[in-house]
Amino acid sequence: MALMITDECINCDVCEPECPNDAISAGEEIYVIDPNLCTECVGHFDEPQCQQVCPVDCIPLDPTRSETRDQLLKKYELISAA
């Protein structure tokens, strides 16, 4: 699954630089995650780095974007090849 940022986001700016795929960017009111670029850090780290640094724990799995680890790895490979 891709991750998402909820409206509990306090715009602290710590998640964006942690994303190895540049999937996180500033939205109109809070940070947002591009689900097409989010691999939950598969291919880079064992755990999603944005979740690890978020001080308010507002980055859950996006229930509308179900993906297996194999699918996330394939997405990582496509992103890395581009």
From TrEMBL:
Keywords: 4Fe-4S, Iron, Iron-sulfur, Metal-binding. It comes from the Bacteria. Residues 1-29, 31-64 form the 4Fe-4S ferredoxin-type domain. InterPro entries: 4Fe4S_Fe-S-bd, 4Fe4S_Fe_S_CS, PSI_iron-sulfur_center, YfhL-like. Gene3D superfamilies: 3.30.70.20. This is YfhL family 4Fe-4S dicluster ferredoxin. It comes from Modicisalibacter zincidurans. The lineage of its organism: Bacteria, Pseudomonadati, Pseudomonadota, Gammaproteobacteria, Oceanospirillales.
